[in-house]
């Protein structure tokens, strides 16, 4: 290579570096923005170390399994529900010093402030993650829905979830610190197919709210995502099943019922720092039901 072409190469690389530097300065000068990213790989066993988490409806089913995995990943957890017995039984089963029960009906909007204060006290500090999991089901078909059924389902699945989320986010936005906050909303496969009864309609609400708040709150350091489970073996579904039992069903392409443990694994991933670039998404986990 000639001396001239070496000099040309050097000049080109200096010009490229200077232009990249100018572009970077322009970004900061014009938009005030400076962002760096650290890639986080999942290290199971300490994914949620030190995090303070509230799981609504954590006394049974999907919520119970999410709480269990949160504890295994090092978090402090408050599980809520209306039945004291259910919560007591869950705490006995999980047997962890990092777990606290809180009797709290989230459909009572006037109790939300008090509920959040109690949860914060039990956790010994600010909540980092909210799992909006509590839900009730009624499958009375159209055209037999009564106003009472509508109100009962909406009170927990939509109204309660909304006001709890709004109250907590207001607190987070006022007292912003450096830690990233997260919300995981539990929707349903029913939120991704046509809806003719209130349960499914509330699950559309939840997926829509997840998308809307995902956009609105990202700039405040709050990441909102959701999970839409398919038919999962919990008390909500007839025929409670466990791992290694016959889980065959014909409703989805995978031809099997899902297990609450599978939803819990997805929840842990979404709560982890490895999912920090996912915003406003509801991840459908339904054996293919909603796309069949
Ligand atoms: N299982 C499925 O096939 C399936 C499918 C799609 C979506 N999901 C959704 O997944 C979530 C969990 O359901 P799951 O299957 O685990 O049902 P689950 O076993 O019946 O558990 C629901 C939990 O929510 C609590 N809860 C209900 N109303 C509440 C309220 N007003 N305030 C506080 N807690 C309340 C219940 O406790 P208390 O009775 O003590 O209040 C219970 O612990 C729900 O949002 C459900 O819609 C479930």
UniProtKB/TrEMBL annotation:
It is an enzyme of class 1 (oxidoreductase). Belongs to the short-chain dehydrogenases/reductases (SDR) family. Its EC number is 1.1.1.-. GO terms for molecular function: oxidoreductase activity. This is SDR family NAD(P)-dependent oxidoreductase. Keywords: NADP, Oxidoreductase. Coiled coil: none annotated.
């Amino acid at each position: 290579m000639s001396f001239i072409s070496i000099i040309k190469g050097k000049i080109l690389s200096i010009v490229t570096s200077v232009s990249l530097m100018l572009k970077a300065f322009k970004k900061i000068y014009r938009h005030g923005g400076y962002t760096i990213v650290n890639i986080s790989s999942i290290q199971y066993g300490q994914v949620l170390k030190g995090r303070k988490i509230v799981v609504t409806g954590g006394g049974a089913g999907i919520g119970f399994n999410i709480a269990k995995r949160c504890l295994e990943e090092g978090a402090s957890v408050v599980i809520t529900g209306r039945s004291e017995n259910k919560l007591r039984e869950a705490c006995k089963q999980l047997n962890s010093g990092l777990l606290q029960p809180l009797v709290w009906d989230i459909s009572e909007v006037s109790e939300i402030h008090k509920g959040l204060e109690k949860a914060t006290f039990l956790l010994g500090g600010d909540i980092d993650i909210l799992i909006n999991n509590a839900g009730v089901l009624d499958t009375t078909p159209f055209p037999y829905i009564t106003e009472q059924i509508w109100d009962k389902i909406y009170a927990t699945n939509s109204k309660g979830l909304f006001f709890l989320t709004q109250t907590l986010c207001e607190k987070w936005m006022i007292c912003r610190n450096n830690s990233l906050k997260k919300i995981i909303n539990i929707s349903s496969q029913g939120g991704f197919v046509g809806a003719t009864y209130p349960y499914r309609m509330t699950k559309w609400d939840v997926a829509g709210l997840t998308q809307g708040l995902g956009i609105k709150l990202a700039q405040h350091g709050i990441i909102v995502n959701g999970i839409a489970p398919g038919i999962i073996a919990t008390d909500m579904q007839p025929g409670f099943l466990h791992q290694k039992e016959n889980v065959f069903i014909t409703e989805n392409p995978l031809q099997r019922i899902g297990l609450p443990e599978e939803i819990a694994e997805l929840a842990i991933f979404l709560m982890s720092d490895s999912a920090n670039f996912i915003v406003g998404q509801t991840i459908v986990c339904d054996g293919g039901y909603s796309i069949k």
